[in-house]
Design a protein that fits this description.
The complex is a heterodimer.
Chain A (H helix, E strand, L loop, with lengths): L20 H8 L7 H13 L3 H21 L4 E5 L9 H8 L4 E6 L2 H11 L5 E5 L5 H6 L1 H4 L9 E5 L11 H11 L5 E6 L9 H13 L8 H6 L5 E2 L5 E2 L21 E6 L2
Parallel strand pairs in A: 1-2, 1-4, 2-3, 4-5
Antiparallel strand pairs in A: 5-8, 6-8, 7-8
Helix pairs in contact in A: 1-2, 2-9, 3-4
Chain B lengths: L18 H18 L9 H20 L6 H12 L5 H19 L5 H61 L3 E6 L4 E4 L1 H7 L3 H5 L13 H11 L5 E9 L5 E12 L5 E10 L1 H15 L9 H14 L4 E9 L2 H8 L1 H18 L5 E7 L2 E7 L4 H14 L4 E3 L2 E3 L3 E9 L5 H17 L5 E3 L2 H22 L3 E10 L4 E13 L3 E3 L1 H11 L2 H23 L5 E5 L2 H4 L4 H12 L6 E6 H5 L3 H13 L2 E7 L6 H4 L6 E4 L15 H16 L3 E4 L5 H10 L3 E2 L10 H9 L1
Parallel strand pairs in B: 11-12, 14-16, 16-17, 17-18, 18-19, 19-20, 20-21
Antiparallel strand pairs in B: 1-2, 1-5, 3-4, 4-5, 6-8, 6-11, 7-8, 9-10, 13-14, 13-21, 14-15
The chains are: A alpha/beta, B alpha/beta.
Chain lengths: 273, 719
C-alpha cells in the first residue's frame, strides 16, 4: 500500500502515502492493522530507540491500570481521547469486564482508525466512536456521540494516554485540558501519560526518535515532570502523583526493573474535586 | 474488537494431577511468563499472564501423558497464545526453546526417548498452531484495516459528493446568474439563471468571450476594472452593467466579478455573479419620470426644467439660450367662478397647445406650477427667435377653448429673456424672466415683454429705495428744505413751502420726485408726511418766535393717501398743539385730484382743518380736471398755478398770449372765489413782472429763491 496514489478527491486525512500514529501504534502493539508505510516508520523509530517498544507497551499498560483504578473509584463512563486503532486491551473491554453497563466514547482524528472502530463496535450501544480533532474540546463535548452517551451529572473518566506529547505548546495543551476539565462534574478523573524526561537525563537517541517521529508521523514534544503536573491544574493528583510511567501504581514488583526509574515518560491520574 | 481472552482455560482432569507435578507446572508457567512478557503486549497483569500460561502448561502435561498420544493439544496451545495476543515475533521462539530446555525437568519427567519424542511433537504442533492462528489473525486484521480504509474513503467520498452536489445545486438552482470563465475570458460554464437572463444556452455562451458581452453603454470603469482583475491586480469588483439579450432587449444587471487564484496565487478563473435589476431599473426610471413630470399636463415639471436649465449652463455646448415665462391672464377668475375641475382642464389644454406650438430639439415646455409655464429654447440665434416663439404661443392661445359647455377665451402674458450664456447664470435667467413676466402683466397683459436691463436697474433702484425707506426714516436720513413764497406786490416772504429731501447713504441727496411716489405705493407716505409736518411746524414756531408777525407760514404737501388717513385731523391738531403754532401759520397743499376726486369723508377732514384755521391750497392747479363749480364749495384758501403755465410768460421781449390769458383767467377765477393765487415755477424777472401785472398774489420759483436750509430762510427774513 506504500505506493498507493492518493486520489485527487481524497481529503488529506485518508492519505495512505503518509503513516498514521494510530497504525504505527497498532504495529508496535503487535497488531496487523497497518500498512507498509506505517511499519517502515515504526521500524525506523525502533531502530533509533530500541527501548521505545517497551515505552509503547508501558503506555498501554498504564491505560489499563488507570482505567482499573477509576473503575475501583466507581467511574462507569469514559472519554478516551486519541484512542487510535483498537488493537488490544481497549477501554471498553477493561471497563465492561468489571461492569457490563460501563459506557465509553472513543475519539480520534484518524478517519481509518475511526472507521475500523465503528466496524468492530457495531451493535455495542454502550460505546460510541467520534472522528474529531480532540484539541477542539467544544466540538467533542457538544457532539451527539458524547452528549448521547455520557451523563454529565455523573463523574467521567477522561483518558489522554500517549496523546498530549503530540500537542505542541503552540496548540495550548493546558487550555485543551482545562476545556475538558470545565465540562466534567466534580468527582471525575483525568489520566495522562506523556513522553518526557527529567533535567539532566538527556540521551541523544531520544532526540533521534523525536526527529524520526516528527518527520515521519507527527510532531512530538517531550515534557518534564513538573510540566506534566501543571496539566493537572484544577485536579487533585492521586498517589503517587506524577510518576515514571511503570512506577504509577505498578501491579507487581516483578513488573519493575532497573530501568523503570529512568523511563522516558510520566503518568498521573487526578480527581476533579 | 479483539477476541475475548479466556482466562479460565481449564485443563481436563486437572484435579488428577499430582501435587508435585502441579507445583512443577506452576514453576514452569512463571518462567514462561517472564520469558514472553515484553515480547508482546497482552492486556493482563503479570499474575494473570502466569495463571493463563499455567493452564496451558497443564494442558501440555496431560498431553505428554495422554494415551493415545495426540498432538492436537499442542496445536491448540499455539492458537491460544495468539488468541491472548501473544503476537510478538519473539514469543514463539522463546516458548519453543523454553519447552525444550525446561519443561521436562520442571515437571520431574524422565527425559526418555518417548517423552523427548512426544515433547518434540507437541512443540511442532504448537508452532504450527501458533503460525496458523497468527496468519489468520494477521489476514483478518489486514482485511479489517483495508475495510476501514475503504469505509473511511467511502465516507469521505460521500461527503465530497454531497458537498459537490450541494455546490452544483447552488450553482444550478441559484436565482442569481453565475458564470465561470478562464482568465482569457473564455466562458466555461453558466448556470440556468444566467442562461434565462441573457437568453443564450450554455452551449451558445461557451462560444463567447467575456469581451463579446461588452455593451456600448458600459461605463468605462467596467472594463478598466476587468483588465485589472484579469491581470490579478484586484480580486473582485462590482458594477452596474447592461447586457444585450439574445432577443435584442436590454438587461440591467448588478455584476460582481471575482478572481479565483490557483495554489500559487496566480489568476486562474473568473466568476461572475449577475443579478437582473431591470425591473428595479425600470421602476427607478418610472419614479424618476414621475418625480420630473407634472401629473396634470404630463409636461416636465419645475424640477426637470431646472435640471435641464442647469445642464444648459454646465455643458455650454450652445452659446445662447432664451426663456419664455408664461402666466395665464385671469386664470384665478376662471378657477374661482367655474371650479377647479374646469380650471384643471383648461391647464391641460393650454399645456397641450404650448407643447404643440413649441416642438423641436432644444426646446422644452414645462409647467412650473399653478398657471405658470416656461419655455426653454437652447441655442437661440438672437432675441427674435424667442419673440417668434412667444408670438406663436400667443397666437395658439387665441382660439377659444371649449370645456364642459364653456367657451373660454384665455390670454397669457409672457416675459422673455434671451442672452448669451457667458456672464449669466440659470438663476439670473429665471429671475429676469419672472420680472419680465411681471412687466408684461403691468403693461396690460395678453402680450410679451422683453427683458430690459435699464428698466430693471431702475426698478431695482426703486425697490432698493422703497425697501430702505422705513429704516431711513428712523435713522433721520430725511430733512426738510424750504422755498420762499414771495408776495409779488412788495417781494416780502410771506410763506415757505416745506420740501422733503433724502440724504441717501448710497445714492446721495434725493429730491422728492425720486421717492414720494414710492412712499405713496408702500404707504410709508403717511408716517413720512407726518414727520415732515412736524418738522415744518417746529420750524414755523421758531420763526414765529424770532420774527413775530413777520414770520412766514409753512406750506406742507399732503399726499392723497394722507388726505384719506382718518387720523389726519387729529395728527395735525396734536402737532400744532405740541409746537404751539397758531393754525394760520400752516398751509396744507393738496393736488386737484386729491381734493376733487374724494368722497365725503376726506372732505370733512379738510373742512375740519379749515375750520381749525389751517390754510388749504390746491397744488398744481390747472393740470387736473377741476370741477370749477364744485370749487366754490370747497374749504380752500389758495390756488397754486402749475409752473407749466409760466412758460409763455418767461421771455423778456414777448409773451405767449394764450398762456397769459389762461393765467389771468385763473387769477380772476380765484379772486372771484376769494382765493389767493400763487404762481409756481417763476424763473425770470419778466415772469414776475407779468404775474404781478396780471394780479397774481404770490410767486414761487428760482427767480426768488431755490429751496434752502431753514438757516438760509432766517437770513432772508432778517434782510
Amino acid at each position: 500500500m506504500d505506493t498507493v496514489e492518493r486520489p485527487n478527491w481524497a481529503p488529506g486525512d485518508i492519505d495512505l502515502g503518509r503513516p498514521s500514529i494510530a497504525r504505527v501504534y497498532d504495529y508496535w502493539l503487535g497488531g496487523a492493522h497497518n500498512f507498509a508505510i506505517d511499519r517502515a516508520v515504526g521500524d525506523k523509530v525502533l531502530a533509533d530507540v530500541p527501548i521505545l517498544k517497551n515505552v509503547i507497551l508501558n503506555h498501554r499498560a498504564f491505560l489499563r491500570r488507570a482505567v482499573r483504578f477509576m473503575l475501583s473509584q466507581g467511574i462507569r463512563q469514559f472519554l478516551d481521547l486519541g484512542s487510535g486503532i483498537p488493537t488490544v486491551g481497549n477501554v471498553h473491554e477493561i471497563a465492561q469486564a468489571t461492569d457490563p453497563g460501563a459506557r465509553v466514547v472513543y475519539v480520534d482524528i484518524d478517519a481509518v482508525a475511526v472507521a475500523h472502530s465503528r466496524a468492530i463496535l457495531t451493535g455495542n450501544e454502550l460505546v460510541n466512536v467520534l472522528q474529531t480533532d480532540v484539541r477542539d474540546a467544544k466540538q467533542v463535548l457538544k457532539s451527539p456521540e458524547v452528549q448521547g452517551l455520557l451523563d454529565f451529572d455523573q463523574p467521567i473518566g477522561v483518558l489522554m494516554v500517549a496523546l498530549l506529547h503530540f500537542v505542541p505548546d503552540s496548540d495550548d495543551p493546558h487550555g485543551i485540558v482545562a476545556d475538558y476539565r470545565d465540562a466534567i462534574p466534580s468527582g471525575s478523573y483525568l489520566a495522562v501519560s506523556h513522553a518526557g524526561y527529567e533535567e539532566g537525563e538527556w540521551d541523544p537517541a531520544w532526540d533521534d526518535a523525536k526527529t524520526t517521529y516528527n518527520r515521519g508521523v507527527s510532531e512530538m514534544t517531550y515534557r518534564k515532570k513538573q510540566d506534566v503536573g501543571a496539566l493537572f491544574d484544577g485536579f487533585e493528583l492521586v498517589e503517587p502523583g506524577v510518576a515514571r510511567l511503570p512506577l504509577w501504581q505498578p501491579e507487581s514488583p516483578d513488573d519493575l526493573d532497573e530501568n523503570s526509574a529512568r523511563f522516558l515518560g510520566f503518568g498521573a491520574v487526578g480527581r476533579k474535586p | 474488537m479483539t477476541e475475548q481472552v479466556d482466562h479460565r482455560v481449564a485443563a481436563p482432569g486437572r484435579s488428577n494431577l499430582d501435587p508435585a507435578v502441579l507445583a512443577g507446572a506452576e514453576s514452569f508457567a512463571r518462567t514462561w511468563a517472564t520469558a514472553v512478557i515484553g515480547s508482546s503486549y497482552v492486556p493482563m497483569t503479570r499474575a494473570e499472564v502466569a495463571a493463563h500460561l499455567q493452564a496451558l502448561t497443564e494442558v501440555l502435561v496431560h498431553a505428554l501423558h495422554a494415551s493415545p498420544f495426540r498432538t492436537a493439544p499442542g496445536y491448540e496451545i499455539g492458537a491460544r497464545l495468539v488468541e491472548a495476543h501473544f503476537t510478538g515475533t519473539d514469543t514463539l521462539g522463546r516458548t519453543v526453546q523454553l519447552l525444550g530446555d525446561d519443561l521436562l525437568g520442571e515437571l520431574g519427567i524422565q527425559p526418555d526417548e518417548l517423552m523427548r519424542s512426544r515433547l518434540a511433537a507437541l512443540q511442532g504442533a504448537l508452532a504450527a498452531g501458533y503460525a496458523r492462528a497468527l496468519r489468520e489473525r494477521t489476514l483478518a486484521e489486514q482485511e479489517a484495516i483495508r475495510a476501514a480504509v475503504l469505509d473511511a474513503r467511502d465516507q469521505a467520498e460521500a461527503a465530497l459528493r454531497a458537498s459537490e452536489a450541494r455546490f452544483r445545486a447552488m450553482f444550478t438552482e441559484a436565482a442569481i446568474g453565475i458564470g465561470i470563465a478562464d482568465i482569457e475570458g473564455r466562458i466555461l460554464d453558466v448556470n440556468q439563471a444566467l442562461q434565462d437572463m441573457l437568453g443564450f444556452s450554455v452551449e451558445e455562451m461557451r462560444q463567447y468571450n467575456i469581451r463579446d458581452l461588452m455593451h456600448p453603454e458600459d461605463g468605462g470603469s467596467v472594463w478598466r476594472l476587468y483588465d485589472q482583475l484579469t491581470a490579478g491586480e484586484c480580486d473582485h469588483y462590482r458594477a452596474e452593467k447592461r447586457f444585450r439579450r439574445a432577443d435584442g432587449e436590454q438587461v440591467w444587471t448588478h455584476l460582481t466579478l471575482s478572481l479565483v487564484r490557483d495554489d500559487h496565487g496566480d489568476p486562474q478563473y473568473q466568476v461572475a455573479m449577475i443579478e437582473d435589476v431591470t425591473d428595479r431599473h425600470l421602476l427607478q426610471n418610472r419614479l424618476r419620470y414621475q418625480a420630473l413630470h407634472d401629473p396634470l399636463t404630463g409636461l416636465p415639471n419645475r424640477a426637470l426644467f431646472l435640471e435641464r436649465l442647469g445642464r444648459v449652463f454646465n455643458n455650454r455646448a450652445r452659446h445662447r439660450a432664451g426663456l419664455c415665462y408664461l402666466d395665464l391672464d385671469g386664470f384665478k377668475v376662471i378657477n374661482d367662478s367655474l371650479g377647479h375641475d374646469i380650471g384643471d382642464q383648461l391647464l391641460v389644454e393650454v399645456g397641450r397647445r404650448l407643447d404643440h406650438s413649441v416642438s423641436g430639439e432644444g426646446k422644452l415646455v414645462a409647467r412650473m406650477g399653478g398657471d405658470e409655464f416656461v419655455i426653454l429654447v437652447e441655442g437661440s440665434q438672437d432675441t427674435q427667435d424667442i419673440v417668434n416663439v412667444a408670438d406663436r404661443v400667443l397666437r395658439e392661445l387665441e382660439s377659444p377653448i371649449r370645456i364642459g359647455g364653456h367657451e373660454l377665451t384665455v390670454s397669457a402674458s409672457i416675459g422673455i429673456v434671451e442672452r448669451a450664456l457667458s456672464g449669466t447664470t440659470a438663476a439670473d435667467l429665471m429671475r429676469d424672466a419672472d420680472i419680465t413676466l411681471y412687466w408684461a402683466k403691468a403693461d396690460g397683459k395678453s402680450r410679451w415683454a422683453l427683458y430690459n436691463p435699464e428698466r430693471n436697474a431702475k426698478e431695482v433702484a426703486r425697490f432698493t429705495l422703497s425697501a430702505t425707506m422705513p429704516a431711513a426714516l428712523e435713522r433721520d436720513e430725511f430733512y426738510v428744505d424750504y422755498q420762499p413764497l414771495v408776495r409779488l406786490e412788495d417781494s416780502t416772504v410771506v410763506g415757505v413751502e416745506a420740501l422733503v429731501r433724502w440724504q441717501h447713504p448710497e445714492f446721495g441727496r434725493l429730491a422728492p420726485d425720486r421717492f414720494i411716489e414710492l412712499a405713496e405705493e408702500t404707504g410709508l407716505i403717511v408716517p413720512l408726511g407726518r414727520w415732515v409736518l412736524r418738522k415744518a411746524c417746529e420750524q414755523a414756531r421758531r420763526w414765529l418766535e424770532e420774527f413775530g408777525d413777520a414770520a412766514p407760514f409753512v406750506s406742507v404737501n399732503l399726499a392723497v393717501r394722507q388726505s384719506r388717513d382718518p387720523e389726519l385731523v387729529r395728527d395735525v391738531k396734536r402737532i400744532l398743539d405740541e409746537c404751539a403754532l397758531p393754525p394760520h401759520h400752516l398751509q396744507l397743499e393738496l393736488t386737484e385730484s386729491a381734493i376733487m376726486g374724494t368722497a365725503d369723508e376726506p372732505l370733512e377732514a379738510l373742512r375740519a382743518l379749515s375750520d381749525m384755521g389751517v390754510r388749504i391750497a390746491i397744488d398744481d392747479f390747472g393740470t387736473g380736471y377741476s370741477n370749477l363749480a364744485y370749487l366754490k364749495h370747497l374749504p380752500v384758501h389758495e390756488l397754486k398755478i402749475a409752473g407749466s403755465f409760466m412758460e409763455g410768460l418767461r421771455a423778456a421781449d414777448e409773451e405767449d398770449a394764450v398762456d397769459v390769458q389762461i393765467v389771468s383767467t385763473l387769477v380772476q377765477l380765484a379772486h372771484a372765489l376769494q382765493l389767493g393765487v400763487t404762481a409756481e415755477g417763476v424763473e425770470t424777472p419778466a415772469q414776475a413782472k407779468r404775474l404781478h401785472r396780471i394780479g397774481c398774489d404770490t410767486g414761487q420759483g428760482w427767480f426768488f429763491a431755490k429751496p434752502m436750509k431753514p438757516e438760509s430762510i432766517d437770513e432772508l427774513l432778517r434782510r
